[in-house]
Amino acid sequence: MPVCPIDTGRYGSLEMRRIFEEENRLQTMLNVEAALAEALAEVGDIPVEAALTIRSKASSKIVTVEKVKEREKVTRHDVAAMVEVLSEECGEHGEYVHWGVTSNDITDTALALQLKDALNIIKKRLAAIIEILCKKSVEYAELVMPGRTHGQHAIPITLGFKLAVYAAELARSYERMLQLSKRILVGKIGGAVGTMAALGPKALIIEEKTMSKLGLEPVEIATQVVCRDRLAELVCWAALLGSSLDRLAVEIRNLQRTEIMEVAEGFGEEQRGSSTMPQKQNPVDSEKVSGLAKVLRGLVTPALENVPLWHERDLSNSSSERFIIPLSMIILDEMLMTMQSVLTSLRIYPEHMARNLEITRGRIMSEAVMMKLARKGMGRKRAYELMRKLSRKALIENRSLLEVLEENPEVMKYVSFDELKETIEPKNYLGKNSELIGRAVSYAKSKLG
């Protein structure tokens, strides 16, 4: 009976889950054994007939999960169990199975093949999100809304600017993925402690041929295992990307607050927000992204602790990696799918943005007035202190900032009423909004190639 929500099908796409299913993991290891046998035959170390037989029998339909598990009860070693079952299926040629290699030559190389498939899926999903953000950044480049710091109104911003920031951030994660893929998608055929002693004088040729058949690069050097800094980098990167998705999700959740309601997740006609409150429309998808990000970040510690193994290896990494590697990829897959759906169906409320811009009755434009006065000759220090007092006065007396400014002789000494009206208009205080959006979008798209 399934226990983990991944096993129930709740999280992760079918294509991602299949990569890490038992049968596919077994088949991938068998593929490595077959590629090795073919390489060995090509250099004349084993008979060609043996390689052909190993290839024909290296199938999870023949060397089944059930057979391997049954044998593992005796061997208490999953790879040894697989090797024994495959050897028996190969008959007289079985003695050439697993020739000159050790378990992690097979498992680490197979894992690299699994991760290659997984990262291809993630690459596609992440690129789609970046494209959506770029498009919406341009579409909403002039849609003015309150900018907020510390949860308080700061100065005006546009929705396009806000989204462009996320497009650039996720593009950096995309770039990191391309860079780390070169370090992670590697295999090894090095034997017991990595020296290739058992493979003989043609070891390097055998390695090159095996990796070429599998579409991987060989490690530069390794012990019995591929050094775990590579996998730690992968999990740290996944957590970093997950945290960026979490940051975007938190923004959407905050902007969907009833009191703000500037953007909101899409909500289906038959969707329920509560089992008892019929009016509820909750940002459940963004909340799911935030929740899964917590799990993803929690996988970083075991990944880092797997780096310092004893001497040329021990087994303390194996059990935790059976959790953290599949989980990191499947959870990230779910987060990306969810965020793509959220952004595609995002509801935008310009009228609420305009309403919220007026909540402070012009005080959101205090900096703009301060800088206008400073440039007119008052000086920044005096202008800041004056605007601080006048903004407070407007708040206490519940009056508009423009009204308070208009009756202040010191202010009117430097600017006219028409200048003040123009200055406190939010759309007039966006700085290099358009240029910065364009720069961010160009950057993000350049990383996608």
Number of beta-strand segments: 6
CATH H-level superfamily title of the largest domain:
Fumarase/aspartase (Central domain)
CATH topology descriptor of the largest domain: Fumarase C, Chain A, domain 2
CATH class of the largest domain: Mainly Alpha
How does the major sheet shape up?
2 strands, antiparallel
Q: Strand order, main sheet: write it out.
A: 1-2
Count of helices? Answer: 19
What kind of oligomer do you see?
A: single chain
Proportion in helices: 55-70%
Query: What is the succession of H and E elements?
Result: HHHHHHEEHEHEHEHHHEHHHHHHH
Tally of individual domains: 3
Distance between the termini: 44 Å
Structural class: mainly alpha
Q: Overview of this structure, please?
A:
With 449 residues, this protein is mainly alpha-helical. The protein has 3 domains: 14-96, Fumarase/aspartase (N-terminal domain) (Fumarase C, Chain B, domain 1, Orthogonal Bundle), CATH 1.10.275.10; 103-265 and 281-355, Fumarase C, Chain A, domain 2, CATH 1.20.200; 363-423, Fumarase/aspartase (C-terminal domain) (Ribonucleotide Reductase Protein R1, domain 1, Orthogonal Bundle). 63% of the residues lie in helices and 5% in strands. The chain is built from 19 helices and 6 strands. The chain has helices at residues 14-19, 22-42, 48-57, 65-75, 78-89, 103-139, 159-184, 203-214, 229-255, 284-298, 300-305, 318-344, 350-357, 366-378, 380-397, 401-406, 409-412, 417-423, 433-448; strands at 144-149, 152-158, 186-187, 217-218, 263-264, 347-348. The strands form 3 sheets. Strands 1-2 form a two-stranded antiparallel ribbon. Strands 3-4 form a two-stranded parallel ribbon. Strands 5-6 form a two-stranded antiparallel ribbon. α6 (103-139) packs parallel to α12 (318-344), α6 packs antiparallel against α19 (433-448) and α10 runs antiparallel to α12. The longest helix is centred in the N-terminal third of the chain and has 37 residues, at 103-139. It is elongated and about 100 Å long.
